[in-house]
Amino acid sequence: MSRAADATRILADRLDGRIRRQIRNGHDRQLVPRIPCPDCDTTGLMMRLSPPLAARVIECPTCGAAWPRADVLGSVAA
Predict the structure, then answer these.
(1) Does residue 22 or residue 77 have the better pLDDT?
(2) Does residue 6 carry a pLDDT above 50?
(3) b/e code 1-11 from CB counts within 10 Å (16+ = b)
(4) Residue 58 in contact with residue 66, Cβ under 8 Å?
(5) How far apart are CA 27 and CA 25, in angstroms?
(6) pLDDT for the residue 73
(7) Order of all β-strands in the sheet with 30-32
(8) I need a surface site. Which of 8, 15, 34, 36 has the fewest CB within 10 A?
């Protein structure tokens, strides 16, 4: 496995664990730090995970656009 694939897998595992903990604790909005928005390119702002789609979709609080989580995580690891 390449380093990029390893980094993506590790990042996804950590994010999945964080999401599961937050859902278990009853948070209705989860925050993921430092994922840049691919659309408006706002780095440093937090992108939100929509609760019903927390495992699949990340949305930007600035422009409101949403992407499949795997696409955003893949762009971060690359």
Answers:
(1) 22
(2) yes
(3) eeeeeeebeee
(4) yes
(5) 6
(6) 56
(7) 30-32, 47-49, 57-59, 66-68
(8) 34
Backbone angles phi, psi at 3, to 5 degrees: -65, -40
**Displacement of CA 23 from its chain's centroid (Å):** 14
Q: What are the distances in angstroms from CA 41 to CA 12, 34, 48, 67?
A: 21, 11, 15, 13
Report CA 32 to chain centroid distance, whole Å: 6
CA dist., res. 6 & res. 48, Å (int)? 24
- Using one digit for the tens of pLDDT, what is the confidence trace for 26-71? 554 555 555 677 777 765 445 555 555 555 677 777 777 777 766 6
Whether pLDDT at 78 is above 50: no
Tally Cβ neighbours within 10 Å of residue 28: 9
